[in-house]
Design goal:
By secondary structure, the chain is mainly α. It has four helices and no strands.
């Protein structure tokens, strides 16, 4: 089967199925490294704990972008 035929068939699938296929294909292009994945997971869990316990406060995205614009003189 030609690549164009595969793409044509896939384009007719429901969006959720296409998303699963796209994600699977991207994972084959960007092979994960377990130690890096674990480090990111640990950091994400740490940050979630810090937010949940009130150790750190979050900022609204609008406030962050406004501050960046101000610094850049935009």
């Amino acid at each position: 089967m030609k690549t164009s035929e595969i793409i044509s068939e896939l384009a007719n699938l429901p969006v959720d199925e296409r998303a699963i296929i796209a994600d699977s294909l991207l994972q084959t292009l960007n092979a994960t490294q377990p130690e890096i994945e674990q480090a990111w997971l640990k950091l994400a869990q740490q940050r979630l704990t810090e937010i949940s316990t009130g150790k750190v406060q979050t900022l609204a995205a609008e406030a962050v972008f406004e501050k960046i614009d101000h610094r850049l003189g935009a």
